[in-house]
Structures are given as C-alpha cells and as structure tokens.
C-alpha cells in the first residue's frame, strides 16, 4: 500500500464568513497542492472539507498520515465518530451532529484507506502547516476580492 502524507488546514474570515481550505499531499518526494473555499461557511466546515478534498484525490487505497491543526477534526474522527454512528448521528447531548453531511462524506471516503492522524500546533512555524494555511487564506482573499468587484 502506498504511503502518503497529507497536510490540511481550513480558515474563515468571520465565523461564519468567507472561508478557504488548503491541502498539501506528498508521495515519494512529489508534492501536490489543492485549495478551495466557500463564500459563507465556518472554520470547522473548511477544516473538514480540506480532508475530504484530499481523500477525493486518492485513486486507490493508501496508508495516509493526515496532519491537521484542528482538534475538532482529529477528535471527531478518532474519538467521537464511532459513538455518533452508534447513536444514529446524534451527539452526546442527543442533538444531531453538527456538519453531518461533511462527517458522513469523510467517513465514506476514508473507508478504503488506512489513516493515521497527527495533530500539529497551528501558527507555530510548522512548515507544511504554514503552507496549507497560506493556501486557505489566499482563497479567502480571492473570494473577498471577487465579492468586492461585483
């Protein structure tokens, strides 16, 4: 199974507000960057979307290490998800899970892969995390510029 590294980040200007996500994928020394965003979104939605979009790039099952500065995504996937599924997508407070469609898509896309999750401290000089943060923020700036030009 191929071993790849995936660095992800999401950002928002206002919460909710215009948001962006960035991904850096690395395999055998080769790198690929992707990014995107939405006009009206939240930081957590962009963090989830970054991982989803990374997994959509994969054409076969892989052994992936996902680096994220989002404890929401990391704990959500590694700790909370099994309980949510067992409780028919209800949180501990018996309310519907926030960002349900994104969590369901992340779960679906993760199934063929072996994922290892690593938390990195954001905005702390971690080279790859700074790169994906810059990708996400650049997309927000583009969205804001497009909105201003209308």
What's the total number of strands? 5
Q: Please estimate the helix content.
A: 40-55%
Work out the helix count.
Answer: 4
Helical/strand content category? alpha/beta
- Averaged pLDDT, please? 95
Largest sheet: 5 strands, mixed
Specify the overall morphology.
Answer: globular
Instruction: Order the strands across the largest sheet as they lie in space.
Output: 3-2-1-4-5
| Ends distance | 48 Å
Structure description:
This protein is α/β, with parallel strands linked by helices and 150 residues long. It is built from four helices and five strands. It has helices at 43-56, 71-86, 100-110, 127-149, and strands at residues 2-12, 17-27, 30-41, 62-68, 114-119. The protein has a five-stranded mixed β-sheet. A hairpin with a 2-residue loop joins strand 2 and strand 3 (30-41).
Task: Name the features.
single chain, 150 residues, alpha/beta, five-stranded mixed beta sheet, 4 helices
Record the SSE blueprint:
Blueprint: E1 2-12, E2 17-27, E3 30-41, H1 43-56, E4 62-68, H2 71-86, H3 100-110, E5 114-119, H4 127-149
Parallel strand pairs: 1-4, 4-5
Antiparallel strand pairs: 1-2, 2-3
Helix pairs in contact: 1-3
